[in-house]
């Protein structure tokens, strides 16, 4: 990939956001709630960590950009659905109008704004305006070429990866730490040796979308470039982080990417209402650290991060996502109490008592009786997932 030079200083990081990202709203009671973007940005501003100069307005993706991944017929269906011009039965054939992904007004425009935010983040990094970029409105990793799925209408990460390939000639390492398997991104590049997808998620035996087995390794020329780490239900911090640190580092050393794109779903936390994992804020302090380390080591710092899942929007997501930005910008990770002003502003709005501190209380939950068994099971799974890389390393001596 060609290096780019510019005549103005590069920012450490860009924070991509616009009010239009809040229009991606299925209903007042749907678990996917973009108020978490406001909560996170406000928390960062309260601690003086997000100056106005760091914020870059997201744009709307064009139809041509969406069509890098999505079928043109599907794009037209989404437009019609959002304007009330399609029967519900017909819409359901495309995964919209379902309980998971209901139709809402101007669905296409709101969805394209999320994709455009990730493309904005890509251009910030790949055109040399920022070393890293964060679009928390992105991370909709379940969208398919011609079908919506799992709260995701368009797949911003897949579009962004193809965009980076075509515009910048980049080899992309995609790392997904959402509790749900990053199926839409994986299948988009399953036969592509220039995109390596990594997903650490709760095993599909218990959780949507039911895919993401270790045996899903890619096909054709892409065989060996798809990695899945399906961890057991009730996995805690230490086991999650062992898989993450060991697995992702070995894969990065094997693949040697030009740029890293991370999807940062915050739904592996113990409080999340839709999953069965037992991570705490300890995990979310460490995830961006390794991403930054690998970006600096392999990619000249090129790291783009997006949001994703996270359904405890009050107690978990703002704290977890703030840590990504703080890591990107080299600011100290905070400890102790959250800002009093933030707690007083949002405490009355929250249906649950807000967490008063950056860290979770220790202990956060009762001890897991199967901890040793779960840890050993996860290690065995990791060894199986990394078998191809380790066999090749042994062959080369």
From TrEMBL:
One Pfam match: Hist_deacetyl
Keyword Transit peptide among record annotations: no
Annotated signal sequence range: none
Gene3D superfamilies for the chain: Histone deacetylase domain
Family of the protein in this entry: Belongs to the histone deacetylase family.
Record field: transmembrane: none
UniProt cross-references to PANTHER family, sorted A to Z: HISTONE DEACETYLASE HDAC1, HISTONE DEACETYLASE HDAC1-RELATED
InterPro entries: AcuC, HDACs, His_deacetylse_dom, His_deacetylse_dom_sf, Ureohydrolase_dom_sf
Entry annotated with the keyword Membrane: no
Domain Histone deacetylase: 30-326
Name of this chain's protein: Acetoin utilization protein AcuC
Organism of derivation: Bhargavaea ullalensis
This protein's pathway: Ketone degradation; acetoin degradation
Keyword set, alphabetical order: Acetoin catabolism
